[in-house]
């Protein structure tokens, strides 16, 4: 198994959307966020997104948005390329995403996950997410999704780094 340095995390720029669309397609197939969908949601929420990269390119992302209730943030899409999985990149990206949403005054983080995706569910449960419902046929017949939610502490690490559920979160440069 090759060793990889930890990723650099940074905010997303419009020029990164094609790479994110490719990561989405690799991770989620027909249920992925397309380039055109990313274009539509980037302007209102792109400041909440993160990219995980190294010297070889972009290998992970989190696409995030504020819900109708401004205290609720959604992880709309999050993926790590298979070549970088099982090396802690997902945990690092998730912790930084939670911190980023908390830094933007969100009190709850929600996401959707396939009930059968045990690896992703374990990652989210380890970070403190709880099963808070399900959406039947969310992406069509038989495409159910579990809703998972994380209640954030009222103490936000506004310095750009901090702790989430006891784990150190790296500082992410402002985009």
From TrEMBL:
GO MF: acyltransferase activity
InterPro entries: Acyl_CoA_acyltransferase, GNAT_dom, YpeA/RimI_acetyltransf
Domain N-acetyltransferase: 7-153
Enzyme Commission number(s) of this protein: 2.3.1.-
Gene3D superfamilies in the cross-refs: 3.40.630.30
Entry annotated with the keyword Zinc: no
Keyword Transferase applies: yes
Keywords: Acyltransferase, Transferase
A Pfam family recorded for this sequence: Acetyltransf_1
EC primary class: transferase
Protein's recorded name: GNAT family N-acetyltransferase
Annotated source species: Catenulispora pinistramenti
């Amino acid at each position: 198994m090759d060793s990889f340095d930890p990723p650099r995390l940074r905010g997303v720029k419009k020029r990164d959307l094609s790479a994110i669309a490719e990561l989405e397609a690799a991770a989620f197939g027909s249920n992925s966020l397309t380039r055109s969908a990313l274009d539509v949601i980037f302007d209102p929420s792109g400041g909440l997104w993160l990219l995980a990269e190294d010297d070889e390119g972009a290998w992970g992302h989190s696409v995030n948005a504020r819900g109708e209730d401004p205290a609720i943030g959604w992880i709309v899409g999050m993926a790590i390329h298979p070549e970088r999985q099982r090396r802690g990149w997902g945990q690092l990206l998730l912790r930084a995403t939670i911190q980023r949403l908390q830094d933007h005054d969100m009190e709850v983080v929600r996401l959707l996950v396939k009930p059968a995706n045990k690896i992703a569910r374990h990652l989210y449960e380890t970070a403190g997410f709880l099963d808070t419902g399900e959406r039947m046929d969310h992406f069509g017949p038989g495409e159910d999704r579990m809703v998972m939610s994380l209640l954030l502490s009222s103490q936000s690490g506004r310095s750009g780094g901090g702790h989430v559920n006891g784990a150190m979160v790296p500082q992410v440069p402002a985009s």
